[in-house]
């Protein structure tokens, strides 16, 4: 890349020449000397143009008439434009201090007040309306942050250290200083500022935290910074004719493009529209526009050789198009000497103002002005000021000349701001996305299973049978109960398959069924793998025993034609409660094997007692009807003998 340095042969400003007559009287010459120079302008949301001149601050209507003005005690700096600070207030840089000017209320004007007076040279300032803060760069001191109440928030310097390591100012640490005004990125809540070594800083609005530092001195130390509010920050090197796009999150360079020669004094600041296209004018007369990805559009495609764009474009009220001022000259010469390109221009002839849509490269409106078009002066109030391309372009943009688009409201501006900003996504995993999803699903299943296992262990170790006794005894008891249940099942099956059906068999089957239920209850409660179930609570549901109905009878006939009928009724509910209580607390022995042996011994004793009762009842020879009851803890059996009549 070559250095581009622009020198004008003529020292007369373009519009001061265009709207001057060739022959002037002495009175006209004296009147021209009294013309005032306006500072850089600001187009407000209300469509007015704000600027200052000498010791006065002006608010112009879009047609050029003065809406109101305020006198200041200090002379304004024409190299800086006023900045809107919200709450119907403007901040203006005057000499080495910043004044705050309130808008008139009900026709009443208030005197400007000093907002900041460091007593040193102010290099620039910026306002963040969202945080209600003002950021000011003071020469040889640093960056100051103040709120709207003029209270100091913090001070930042280019010399910073973190964990013992220096950040920035790598080449000359002692003489390193900030040498540019701050630039605010509203979407990223960041401040961009550079030092005299060619390093670009990204600071947080809330403090002095350095988000990143990019060393651009390898390209050039002189550059301008423009936030894109779309996830990018644009850096323009006028002497190198380069445009860089940096990632606002990390500061990495995403792309770089070459443009035509640029002016060092003005015109090196690009403008970004709502479609995220950045446009910058060149001294070759071409408007260069780049998309967010670096796609280039040139407008116009076929430009005349004797033309140039020396002021920055302005965004229209819709945000979709830009106003451009192109100057046509009598002649222009480009000369390359070494690594530098020198552009010399002759007398300007015509100024062409156009409304261009960078995305489509379409020109919706264009008009040329020359010394034969005195109608350019919109109002008589502007005759008291020097009009150049920069001032006239501001009034054309404020008046929406030839604009077919609808202007945006404040709500539209807020909704469309940061719409193209893409948040930075940090990739934790590197690989196939489908594999990552399956891996995450597998991890989720493992976590769920682990949580279920922890919950099971928590409930299992709270079991009463595991308190104060080894776990092996618990498992031995479970095995014995399972084996006992299987033996009972086999015995019941064998007895049911036998052909003889006597009282002893029926009693034994019923006892085995009851024992099997007890074993199942133990396996599902005290010796289960889950939580303990309080079986005694079920017996407390009813105070009085309930008759559930249902009975059965078994009849047998012997050789003497005597019949025995056995009636079986349900056992009393209280006995069931007692057995439940006994079964529940009977297992509190220290040896599970001994508990099982005791249960088998009880069963044998009960069966033996019932066998004796059956033998006595069946061997009786008394001829009269006799009833006898055999009571047990499990059921009641009634025996009845009846004599049968014989045939004579």
Automatic annotation (TrEMBL):
Disordered as annotated region, ranges: 567-634
Q: Which SUPFAM superfamilies match?
A: Quinoprotein alcohol dehydrogenase-like (SSF50998)
- List cellular component terms (GO): plasma membrane
What is a biological process (GO) this protein takes part in?
pollen tube guidance
Biased composition of type Acidic residues is found at 586-600
Question: Basic and acidic residues: which segments have biased composition?
Answer: 568-585
Q: State the UniProt keywords alphabetically.
A: Membrane, Signal, Transmembrane, Transmembrane helix
Q: Where is the signal peptide?
A: 1-23
Q: Which domain of life is it from?
A: Eukaryota
This protein's name: Protein GAMETE EXPRESSED 3
């Amino acid at each position: 890349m070559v250095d581009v340095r622009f020198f004008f042969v003529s020292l007369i400003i373009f519009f001061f020449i265009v709207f001057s007559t060739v022959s002037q009287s002495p009175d006209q010459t004296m009147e021209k000397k009294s013309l005032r120079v306006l500072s850089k302008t600001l187009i407000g949301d209300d469509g007015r143009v704000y600027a200052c001149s000498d010791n006065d601050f002006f608010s112009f209507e879009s047609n050029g008439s003065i809406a109101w003005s305020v006198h200041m005690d200090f002379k304004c700096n024409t190299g800086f434009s006023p900045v809107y600070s919200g709450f119907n207030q403007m901040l203006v840089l005057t000499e080495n201090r910043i004044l705050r000017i309130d808008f008139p209320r009900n026709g009443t004007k208030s005197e400007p007040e000093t907002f900041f007076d460091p007593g040193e040279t102010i290099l620039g300032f910026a306002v963040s309306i969202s945080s209600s803060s003002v950021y000011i760069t003071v020469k040889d001191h640093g960056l100051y942050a103040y709120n709207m109440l003029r209270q100091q928030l913090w001070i930042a310097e280019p010399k910073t250290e973190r964990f013992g390591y220096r950040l920035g100012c790598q080449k000359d640490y002692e003489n390193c200083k900030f040498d540019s005004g701050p630039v605010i990125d509203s979407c990223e809540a960041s401040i961009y500022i550079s030092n005299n070594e060619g390093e670009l800083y990204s600071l947080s609005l809330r403090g002095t935290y350095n988000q990143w530092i990019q060393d651009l001195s390898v390209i050039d130390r002189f550059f301008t910074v423009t936030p894109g509010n779309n996830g990018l920050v644009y850096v323009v090197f006028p002497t190198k004719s380069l445009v860089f796009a940096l990632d606002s999150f990390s500061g990495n360079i995403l792309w770089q493009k070459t443009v035509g020669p640029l002016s060092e004094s003005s015109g090196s600041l690009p403008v970004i529209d709502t479609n995220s296209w950045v446009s910058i004018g060149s001294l070759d007369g071409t408007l260069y526009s780049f998309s967010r990805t670096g796609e280039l559009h040139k407008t116009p495609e076929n430009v005349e050789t004797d033309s140039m764009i020396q002021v920055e474009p302005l965004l229209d009220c819709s945000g979709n198009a830009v106003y451009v001022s192109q100057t046509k000259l009598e002649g222009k010469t480009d000369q390359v000497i070494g690594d530098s390109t020198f552009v010399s221009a002759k007398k300007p002839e015509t100024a062409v103002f156009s409304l261009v849509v960078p995305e489509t490269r379409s020109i919706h409106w264009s008009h040329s002005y020359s010394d034969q078009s005195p109608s350019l002066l919109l109002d008589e109030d502007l005759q008291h000021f020097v009009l150049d391309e920069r001032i006239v372009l501001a009034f054309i943009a404020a008046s929406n000349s030839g604009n077919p688009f609808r202007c945006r409201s404040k709500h539209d501006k807020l909704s469309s701001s940061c719409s193209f900003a893409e948040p930075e996504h940090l990739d934790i995993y590197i690989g196939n996305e489908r594999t990552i999803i399956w891996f995450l699903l597998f991890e989720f299943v493992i976590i769920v299973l682990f949580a279920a296992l922890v919950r099971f262990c928590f409930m299992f170790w709270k079991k009463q049978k595991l308190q104060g006794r080894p776990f092996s005894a618990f498992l031995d008891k479970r095995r014995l109960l399972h084996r006992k249940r299987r033996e009972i099942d086999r015995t019941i099956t064998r007895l049911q398959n036998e052909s003889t059906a006597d009282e002893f068999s029926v009693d034994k089957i019923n006892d085995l069924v009851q024992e099997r239920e007890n074993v199942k209850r133990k396996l599902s409660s005290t010796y289960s793998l889950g939580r303990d179930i309080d079986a005694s609570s079920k017996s407390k549901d009813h105070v009085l025993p309930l008759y559930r109905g249902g009975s059965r009878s078994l009849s047998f006939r012997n050789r003497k034609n005597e019949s025995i009928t056995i009636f079986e009724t349900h056992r009393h509910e209280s006995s069931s409660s007692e057995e439940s209580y006994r079964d529940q607390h009977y297992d509190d022995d220290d040896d599970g094997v001994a508990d099982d042996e005791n249960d088998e011994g009880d069963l044998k004793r009960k069966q033996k007692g019932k066998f004796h009762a059956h033998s006595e009842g069946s061997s009786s020879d008394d001829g009269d009807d006799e009833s006898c009851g055999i009571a047990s803890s499990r059921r009641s059996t009634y025996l009845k003998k009846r004599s049968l009549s014989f045939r004579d």
